[in-house]
């Protein structure tokens, strides 16, 4: 310790001289405090390694996210729920992170002390208080802190960026399902006319239009029904739209036994932020409904079940702050009850038909990477009538002739119904 004081004798002297006036006033307490603080700081610097991560820096978010995933943080009893965004500022997620104060974690066998500090000043932009997180460890173990920060960055960058996260309902709440899917490009979904663009524009306008709804007291939600024969890309369209708008997808499975009226209401109105709710094959879920006037009145012994009226109520429920985007799909719109798809529950009905000649030609061009309206593509599509074949049927056929568009054209008669049997 002598060594320490000698090395820094200049500063110590300054400390002493400014301490002298205090000494006179405070009867010696001041100078003692000054010197002991100073020495403590010097010792700290020799023993501890500390990094400050400021909330103004990107790494702050990365670190919070990393902490939320870390085992010893999960076990902690003092957590804050916070919303974080991915690196393009979208797809917010709520995570649990250490709250303001002191925490200790183990990382690679090293102890790291975490001190989260909230400033009294505010960021004018976001209105949030400035914060910082101090990470300290023994100086000998400093590399652990550096590695931690590096790992935090990679975790955030590799996670969910350019991916669509899929959620499924499990025991009445939302759970991530599998690894996030790569985004499907909207170009790969070939629809009739302008449908794709219309749908995209409609959702975009909805997303940016919250005040319009709030000002008029209209619930901030929008429902879409995609209907038409199977194999024409209803699900692919939803995946691609989610990708294009950077939304996640929550698949509502109504067939799960545990889903009852209360849960469906909770699920539909508490989807993770910035996500699309998807109920596939809605006709199948309520096949029996039409013959049984209402399920709950006839089946009184089935206490926990989903009823048709329960679903309707959930559809009408109070949408969350974020607004609710709901997609339903069906292969057989004629089986659906009018009440289910009336205006307000379904705002836009889009028919996804079998392939038109135009779509067949576009699919051919896309598949073989040919220009739109190339002679080969048109020759191919001229062999069929509109709506005769499904898109997946044509695609399946082309897959047999991956490198040979001419051969595909030559053999295309095999796709026609007479030859299918
Ligand atoms: C520092 O690292 C050593 C060697 O890995 C380890 O044994 C020790 O427990 C660590 N100390 C702290 C306080 O983490
Ligand atoms: C750090 O390691 C050195 C030797 O590598 C050792 O002499 C020193 O006591 C250690 N310091 C602490 C604080 O553990
Ligand atoms: C907002 O939504 C309403 C109703 O759908 C629509 O009439 C209006 O044009 C939208 N405004 C914008 C800016 O998209
Ligand atoms: C649509 O395509 C499917 C599969 O190729 C076919 O079975 C069905 O008859 C087609 N629909 C119409 C209206 O032609």
UniProtKB/TrEMBL annotation:
- Keyword Hydrolase assigned to the entry: answer is yes
- GO CC, any one term: mitochondrial inner membrane
Q: Where is the BCS1 N-terminal domain?
A: 23-189
What keywords tag this UniProt record?
Answer: ATP-binding, Chaperone, Hydrolase, Membrane, Mitochondrion, Mitochondrion inner membrane, Nucleotide-binding, Transmembrane, Transmembrane helix
- Tell me the GO BP annotations in alphabetical order: mitochondrial respiratory chain complex III assembly; protein insertion into mitochondrial inner membrane from matrix
Compartments, as annotated in UniProt:
Mitochondrion inner membrane
Q: Which residues cross the membrane?
A: 12-32
Q: Where is the AAA+ ATPase domain?
A: 220-356
> Matching InterPro entries, A to Z?
AAA+_ATPase, AAA_lid_BCS1, ATPase_AAA_core, ATPase_AAA_CS, BCS1_N, Mitochondrial_chaperone_BCS1, P-loop_NTPase
- Which GO molecular function annotation, any one, does this entry have? ATP binding
> What's its membrane topology?
Single-pass membrane protein
Q: What does this protein do?
A: Chaperone necessary for the assembly of mitochondrial respiratory chain complex III.
Q: Which family does it belong to?
A: Belongs to the AAA ATPase family. BCS1 subfamily.
Q: What is this protein called?
A: Mitochondrial chaperone BCS1
């Amino acid at each position: 310790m002598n060594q320490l004081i000698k090395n820094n004798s200049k500063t110590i002297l300054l400390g002493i001289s400014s301490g002298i006036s205090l000494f006179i006033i405070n009867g010696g307490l001041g100078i003692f405090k000054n010197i002991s603080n100073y020495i403590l700081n010097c010792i700290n610097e020799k023993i501890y390694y500390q990094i400050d991560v400021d909330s103004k820096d990107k790494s702050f978010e990365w670190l919070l996210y990393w902490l939320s995933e870390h085992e010893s943080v999960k076990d902690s009893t003092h957590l804050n729920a916070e919303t974080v965004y991915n690196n393009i500022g979208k797809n917010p997620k709520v995570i649990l992170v250490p709250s303001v104060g002191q925490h200790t974690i183990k990382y690679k066998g090293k102890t790291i002390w975490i001190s989260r500090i909230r400033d009294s000043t505010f960021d004018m932009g976001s209105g949030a208080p400035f914060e910082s997180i101090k990470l300290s460890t023994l100086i000998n173990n400093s590399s652990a802190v550096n590695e931690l920060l590096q790992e935090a960055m990679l975790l955030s960058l590799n996670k969910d960026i350019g991916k669509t996260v899929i959620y499924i309902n499990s025991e009445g709440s939302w759970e991530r399902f599998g690894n996030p899917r790569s985004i499907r490009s909207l170009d790969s979904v070939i629809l009739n006319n302008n449908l794709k663009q219309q749908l995209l524009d409609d959702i975009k306008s909805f997303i940016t239009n919250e005040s319009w709804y709030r000002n008029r007291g209209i619930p901030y939600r929008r429902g879409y029904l995609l209907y038409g024969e199977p194999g024409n890309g209803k699900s692919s369209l939803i995946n691609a739209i989610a990708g294009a708008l950077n939304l996640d997808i929550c698949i509502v499975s109504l067939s799960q036994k545990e889903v009852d009226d209360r849960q469906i209401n909770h699920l539909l109105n508490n989807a993770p932020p910035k996500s699309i709710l998807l109920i596939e094959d809605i006709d199948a879920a309520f096949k029996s409904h039409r013959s049984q006037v209402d399920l709950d009145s006839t089946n009184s012994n089935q206490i926990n079940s989903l009823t048709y009226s329960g679903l309707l109520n959930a559809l009408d429920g109070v949408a969350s702050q974020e607004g609710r985007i709901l997609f339903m799909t069906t292969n057989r719109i004629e089986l659906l009850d009018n009440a289910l798809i009336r205006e307000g529950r379904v705002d836009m009905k889009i028919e996804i038909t079998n392939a038109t000649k135009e779509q067949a030609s576009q699919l051919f061009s896309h598949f073989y990477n040919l220009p739109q309206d190339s002679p080969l593509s048109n020759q191919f599509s001229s062999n069929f009538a509109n709506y005769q074949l499904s898109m997946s049927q044509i695609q399946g056929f082309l897959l047999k002739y991956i490198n040979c568009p001419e051969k595909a054209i030559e053999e295309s008669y095999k796709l026609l119904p007479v030859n299918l049997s």
